[in-house]
Amino acid sequence: MLKSFLNIPLKISFVFLIFTLSSFDLKIGILDNKHINRFTVSPINNTTLIIGTEAVKSSAKFNIYRDDIKIDIDGRIKFEKQIKILSDGLFSLKFNNSERYYKGKLSVQRHGKSFLIINSLDIEDYVKAVASAETEGMDSIEAIKANVIAIRTYAIAAMNRHIDEGYNLCDLTHCQLYIGFEKVNDKIIRAVDDTRGMIITYNNKPIWAMYHSNCGGRTETAADVWDYDTMPYLKSIDDRIGKKFFCSGGWAYRWKTRISLKKFESFLRNSIISKNEKFLKIDNVNYTEGGRVKNFNIVTDKRKINISGIDFYHLVGRYLGWMAIKSTAFSVDMDNKYVIFDGKGYGHGVGMCQAGADEMGELGYNYKEIIRHYYKDVKLKKI
Ligand SMILES: [Zn+2]
Ligand SMILES: [Zn+2]
User: Looking at the CA of 241, which ligand is closest?
Assistant: First the structure.
């Protein structure tokens, strides 16, 4: 969940009905960015897999064929416009030389030259799969529990985001990373089962429970990143209780990146400045109270372009990779060969710092204390 929260609706609508349900299915749009025009599903272990009305013994192949979907179930062929797949356990989905493991139901239909695949599954299963992708590298069970509660809460807060496309959430970092069940381990299962149905609320509503890898010592106020203030619980805090910063032992707590002027200018030409301009320097860097770059000027031989820190971070991430500029908490310097970024932390810095949460857990704080450290004036509630 590092890259994009740019599409957060200004007004959060929330269905109170959710509070009366202990468990429910989420619809996740999967693999939409993979441009799949053929895939194979197969049951794993003792799973019963039913496609339409037919049970699948070994595998079923799906192909885009003219206006239809061509389905080959253990050698029997049929053509459909759309079809449902039911399962009572794990099954595999193979596509483009990759394989992922899913649970629940799939609804498959044509979507231009590829498929629209919607995976419906129990929210608790979804949280396990997302936690396996989003909490990699965390060791403390209490920190994983805190992160699991944030994942569940975020899923509920964001569940109207893709409603117009026919599902609740996508499987990318735009919502939360959902890559199936391959990496789900015992620790994650325990963290999810022990916190079943628990979410974080503010004013009785689920919060936008954002989290990121490493805050660099100070988290960021949401309003200073995204320009609107509907999330009073996402306030900049020092990531410590006492002297030592919780995330100071974490990877990317401090980082330095040198980008050659040539490479930097080619990045600028592809994203911000035009071909006939020459990049001269960066100046007028403004910082937020949380110590992140609010905006700065890119000065060329023709003009000054003001850009926000978060837009710059996303552009660099897309063009030079997410390891180049790891956060917007940086200072910038230049010599005659390089642009040098001196930075703190990894990710947008809003909400829970995963490296800090992990250290808090190691130091004996429990998941409730971890949640209250990173999200202000919130309550925990069971749905
Ligand atoms: Zn999404
Ligand atoms: Zn931190």
Answer: 2
Amino acid residing at 82? Q
360 lies in the same domain as 303: no
pLDDT in tens, 152-177: 999 999 999 999 999 999 999 999 99
Domain match, 41 and 90 both: yes
Q: What is the dihedral of CA 274, 277, 282, 283, to 10 degrees?
A: -100
Q: Measured in angstroms, how far is the CA atom of residue 358 from the centroid of ligand 2? A: 10
State whether 87 and 234 are in the same domain: no
Q: Each residue of 309-357: pLDDT tens digit?
A: 999 999 999 999 989 999 999 999 999 999 999 999 999 999 999 999 9
| Ordered alpha helix ranges (H), 58-184 | 123-134, 141-157
Work out how many domains the chain is built from and give that number: 3
Ligand found nearest the CA of 172: 1
Q: Which domain holds residue 352?
A: 142-249+348-382
Give 29 Cα–ligand 1 centroid separation in angstroms: 8
281 in the same domain as 264 = yes
Q: What is the per-residue pLDDT across 176-206, written as a single tens digit (0 to 9) for each?
A: 999 999 999 999 999 999 999 999 999 999 9
Burial annotation 296-309 (CB, 10 A radius, 16+ → b, else e): bbbbbeeeeeebbb
Same domain, yes or no: 376 and 258: no
What distance in Å separates the CA atoms of residue 199 and residue 152, rounded to the nearest whole number?
A: 6
Please tell me the distance between residue 146's alpha carbon and the centre of ligand 1 in angstroms: 22
Query: For residue 212, how far is its CA from the centre of ligand 1 (angstroms)?
Result: 17
The ligand with the least distance to the CA atom of 170 is 1
pLDDT band (50, 70, 90) for residue 112:
confident
Distance 238 CA to ligand 2 centre (A): 8
